[in-house]
Design goal:
There is one protein chain. It is built from 1 helix and 7 strands, in the order ββαβββββ. It is of the alpha+beta class. The chain is globular.
């Protein structure tokens, strides 16, 4: 799943591919905002992204899509 994080006063958003579920992402964002602690995510390659909660502009959680195989459009 892809997560896009907007950071205040930054020209680009941070994009992360993660194995977390949307519910896990929601819980992490809520916890960081409520506690005022940094938001931390790790991607599938082990890269870690840390954003201070006070600098979050938005968090966009991409819909989970099934991958298509071949020309017939058969979902895997």
């Amino acid at each position: 799943m892809e997560i896009r994080i907007g950071v205040l006063h930054a020209p680009r958003e941070v994009v992360i591919d993660t194995t977390l579920t949307p519910d896990e992402v929601h819980a992490a964002v809520d916890a960081a905002l409520n506690a005022g602690t940094p938001l931390r995510f790790s991607d599938e390659k082990g890269r870690e992204v840390i954003v201070p909660a006070a600098h979050l502009a938005y968090v966009d959680i991409a819909a989970v899509e099934s991958r298509r195989i071949g020309f017939g459009g058969v979902a895997s």
